[in-house]
């Protein structure tokens, strides 16, 4: 679950969909040889396969909660191909611009691409507008100014809140 300040707060400020939950990171769990892993894209390590215990330790030590979702039964057949796709994208650097790029991924981009073949999630026009002011959130204005880039308002993308809000998922619980 998202923090309220910094990058996490800025992501959540313009993307939160659910009143009871807000997210700034997303991954996919995989069981392999009786061990659980999380495949995800993170600023530290890029696209990676991390032992679940290590992932949970990182998140919980950072003051985050971890919420577990599962695809509804009618979409379960897409899990195996998504895991194969996610495995094929491991090792790519993190996308610090949050603009779709074939050579680097941000967390929700990594997950959307993993499931893209089966249309589980969809890209939507990104927004960086603060719903309270109706103007581009100041964090994002400064963020992209420092990178000498325009705010990618309306460009295709995805975010953890948008993916978590999918009607194809069901909430299982949280750590």
Report on the architecture of this protein.
The protein is α+β, with helices and mostly antiparallel strands and 175 residues long. The chain has one domain: endopeptidase fold (from Nostoc punctiforme). It is built from six helices and seven strands; from the N terminus they run αβββαβααβαβαβ. The chain has helices at 6-15, 52-61, 79-88, 107-115, 138-146, 160-164, and strands at residues 28-32, 35-42, 46-51, 67-71, 124-125, 156-157, 169-174. The chain has a three-stranded antiparallel sheet with strand order 1-2-3. Strands 4-7 form a two-stranded antiparallel sheet. It has a two-stranded antiparallel ribbon with strand order 5-6. β1 and β2 (35-42) form a beta hairpin. The longest helix is centred in the N-terminal third of the chain and has 10 residues, at 6-15. The radius of gyration is 16 Å and the shape is globular. The model has no long low-confidence stretch (mean pLDDT 89).
Gross morphology is globular
Order of strands side by side in the largest beta sheet?
Answer: 1-2-3
Q: What share of the residues does DSSP label as strand, in percent?
A: 15-25%
If you compute it from the alpha carbons, what radius of gyration comes out, rounded to the nearest whole angstrom? 16 Å
- The secondary structure category is alpha+beta
What is the percent of helical residues? Answer: 25-40%
Number of strands: 7
Question: What's the order of the H and E elements?
Answer: HEEEHEHHEHEHE
Distance from N terminus to C terminus (CA atoms, Å) equals 10 Å
Helix segment count? Answer: 6
The CATH H-level homologous superfamily? endopeptidase domain like (from Nostoc punctiforme)
CATH architecture descriptor text: Alpha-Beta Complex
Instruction: Count the domains.
Output: 1
Q: CATH topology, anyone?
A: endopeptidase fold (from Nostoc punctiforme)
What are the segments in which pLDDT stays under 50 over at least 5 consecutive residues?
Answer: none
User: CATH first level: which class?
Assistant: Alpha Beta
């Amino acid at each position: 679950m998202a923090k309220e300040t910094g990058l996490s707060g800025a992501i959540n400020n313009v993307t939160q969909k659910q009143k009871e939950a807000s997210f700034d990171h997303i991954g996919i769990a995989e069981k392999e040889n009786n061990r659980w892993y999380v495949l995800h894209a993170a600023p530290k390590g890029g696209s990676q396969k991390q032992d679940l215990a290590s992932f949970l330790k990182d998140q919980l030590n950072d003051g985050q909660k971890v919420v577990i979702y599962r695809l509804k039964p009618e979409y379960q057949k897409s899990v195996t191909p998504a895991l194969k796709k996610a495995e094929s994208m491991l090792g790519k650097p993190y996308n610090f611009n949050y603009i779709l790029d074939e050579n680097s991924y941000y967390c929700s981009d990594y997950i959307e691409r993993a499931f893209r073949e089966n249309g589980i999630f969809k890209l939507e026009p990104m927004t960086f507008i603060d719903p309270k002011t109706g103007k581009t959130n100041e964090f994002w204005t400064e963020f992209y100014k420092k990178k000498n880039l325009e705010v990618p308002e309306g460009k295709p993308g995805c975010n953890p809140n948008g993916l978590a809000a999918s009607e194809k998922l069901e909430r299982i619980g949280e750590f």
